[in-house]
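Problem: given the chain below (339 residues), write out its structure.
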Amino acid sequence: MALDLDKLDLSAVDSLVTLKAEQDQLGERLKAMAARREQVSAAVFARVHDDYRQRFDELAQQATPLKVAAGVVYRALKEELESLEAAVATAATDREEIEFRHSLGEFDAAGLKERLAVVEKRLGAQGTRREAAMALKARFLAVVSSEAELDCDDGDTARLTAMAAPDGHSATVIAVPVAAPQGDYSATIVAAPVVAPPPPPAAVATMPSVTLAAGAPPAQTLASSAAAGKPLKARNPDATVVFRQGRLEPRNGDAGSVVQTLGLKPVSIGADGACDVQLAVAGVSKKHVEISMTRAGFQVRDVAGSKIVKVNGETISEKVLVDGDTLSVGSAQFGFRLM
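Solution.
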């Protein structure tokens, strides 16, 4: 059944328009601050920067559920657009076939005109609908930094099976916004259990009696469980993995002014226009850096091997980013944050 383009719920998109406008304004102010850092005291700079940063984080939190809602509608719209593209291509092929059959003498000029009229009518209707769908798609893309924010199934249905566990098992990844306590950015990736057939009976491992010190961390309870004769639960290699999205925020003028969202799809940084983040600074190759999601978190890799990629001032070839890290590619500086 064709999607009713006139009845799409665009409320989330409309709300994101307002949020993104303020985010863009804050991004421009942060960029301007970097250029004027020497004009004020460190204390004033820090206060203003922290104020803008806090507001930016608040806006990002408000935008997260809206992007999830917008993503559901966007993916339905995208499927409809793909269907329309296929229908237009089929109609064009039909027209070519009719003209070819006419050239072979299968029917006369009147038959040609009649058949072409049917195809042209179909093409016209599909073309008009396609234009309307493209206009709607543009509205969705205007409120995000990249299509990946809407297109990577940020709700409970998103799956990625490309990540293999060390023992050959596959890990399912669900990209969902995870709300963390204020200031707690430690859990980049959280393993969640999945339903699986029970394993065959196995011998229960036992351990010598262990006395735990007062205030011992929860991790030691595994040992005490084993000491009590309880079976140790092995980590499920087929576990579903839930991760929090991240973002790269420009810290100076060389890094541009666009905040890049990090998700399931790898993000490239380089001088080439095809890169997700394009830089025009000395020493940067066409494709210089790639950031991808791994089981350990977001990993940055110097694919050019240039020795000008740094994290917190340290030259790296590859490294897993931690919330608050500063990534430098030549003279361009970015801040990494978890959402």
